[in-house]
Amino acid sequence: MEDAVDTRRRIHADPEIGLELPHTQELVASKLAQLGLRMVMGRGCSSVVAVIEGDRPGPTTLLRADMDALEMPEDTGLEFASRTAGRMHACGHDAHTAMLLGAARLLCDRRRELAGRVVLMFQPGEEGHDGARVMLDEGLLAEYHPDRAFALHISSVLPSGWISTRPGTLMASADEFRVTVTGRGGHASMPHDATDPVPAACTIVTSIQSMVTRTVPAFDPAVVTVSTIHGGTATNVIPERVVLGGTIRAVSDRSRDLVLSKLGELCRNVAEAHGCRAEMEVQPHSYPVTVNDDDFAAHTLAVARRLVGDGAMTMPTPVMGAEDWSHVLRQVKGSMAFLGAAPSGVASPAPNHSNHFVIEEDAMADGMAMYAAMALSGDGEPA
User: Fold this and answer.
1) SS3 157
2) 252-297 pLDDT, tens per residue?
3) What is the CATH number of the domain that holds 33?
4) Residues 50, 104 contacting (CB under 8 angstroms)
5) What is the DSSP string of 36-105?
């Protein structure tokens, strides 16, 4: 446990973002080399893959930890806080990496009990850079043919040591969009001589909310948030264009496809009614809905109960955040679970992605045990 905490703190103090994480990759590789494991490094990203062979035949289990940080400031005051301005491990990926390394040590020590093999997937670029898909495109699944897959994610608001998941949809999809509304610029004192895109853009923003509530089924929800509006240069100038940016979240492919098709149509029609035109672009790095296999989610909860007893919880609803682990679960039977790590003595812990995000590091022991137990467990019986 002491080594896991030290590893997590080293990664936390040196956060790296996106697909290129050279320092984190080097640290992970050095820890795996100490265990005598051979590694494969990513070609188009700073990924690390290693395999632990068990002494008995059995399934191939894929275990994943993401490694990247976020582009945001850190205001925790921790002794090991980020040394790089504008970067922070605010989503627990530093802990994920340290826990999977700790689990690798446990599994290497218990090879005699391990049936099959374990593929360790250390992934960059989860935070909007689609690192999982990059690793799949580089042949991860084709090379190792995993029979089952498991990932664990820290939550700073769940009680420390809780492990929770659910069958079916666990997390929403995520699509980023941009809408460019174009009119004709002019003098602000003479709007009749211009075609003002500002009111058109404002109407689009409010119309989106009506479209969602009147188009998407209430029990198959979607959330569309316009989070950026850019337009204009001076108070006495009507701009030629306004650009809107936002995100679409949905808990099923049906609602996701419905919103994506309706949104572009709405933007074009509203803009046209104002004498403007609108063009919508969906950004390429989109994450589909994260869906747990029903049977494997039940198996995950059974393993968790053996470890944490009543701390193993079935989540009542999906989380509207998104995960690129969804790409893996589209091709391999598996699941993701959340590990509670709320700091002790804090009434209202800061959530993931907060500049004040902190965790209870003792929870990492349960995380290491959970990773290892999922690999050691058979398909029907927990370890």
Assistant:
1) coil
2) 999 999 999 999 999 999 999 999 999 999 987 789 999 999 999 9
3) 3.40.630.10
4) yes
5) T--EEE-SSS--EEEEEE-SEEEEEEEEEEE---BSS------TT--SSTT-B--SSHHHHHHHHHHHHH
Beta-bridge partners for 244? 179, 229
Contacts 24+ apart (CB under 8 A), 302-306: 302/381, 302/382, 303/370, 303/373, 303/374, 303/377, 303/382, 303/383, 304/163, 304/165, 304/337, 304/370, 305/382, 306/373, 306/382, 306/383
The reply to whether 67 and 161 lie within a common domain is yes
- Whether residue 35 is found in the same domain as residue 165: yes
Give, in degrees to the nearest 5, the angle at Cα 245 between 183 and 184: 5
- The single residue listed with the structure tokens 């090879």 is 111
Specify the amino acid at residue 160: S
Reply yes or no on whether the pLDDT at 33 is more than 70.
yes
Per-residue pLDDT tens over the stretch 71-83: 999 999 999 999 9
Last residue of a domain, one of 230, 247, 282: 282
Give the DSSP H or E segment for 176: strand 175-182
Phi, psi (rounded to 5 degrees) for 281: -120, 135
Structure tokens belonging to residue 154: 């820290």
Residue 383 lies in a domain: no
Quote the tokens at residue 198: 């500002």
Q: Are 320 and 240 within one domain? A: no
Q: Are residues 106 and 241 in the same domain?
A: no
Q: CA 188 → CA 34, 63, 229, 271, 274, distances in Å?
A: 68, 59, 19, 19, 17
Tell which residue, 85, 58, 55, 59, has the closest CA to residue 72: 85
Alpha-carbon Rg for the chain, nearest whole angstrom, is 23
Burial label, 341 (beta-carbon count in 10 A; 0-12, 13-18, 19+): buried
Could you tell me which residues are beta bridge partners of residue 184? 195
Domain boundary among 282, 316, 348: 282
- State the total domains in the chain: 2
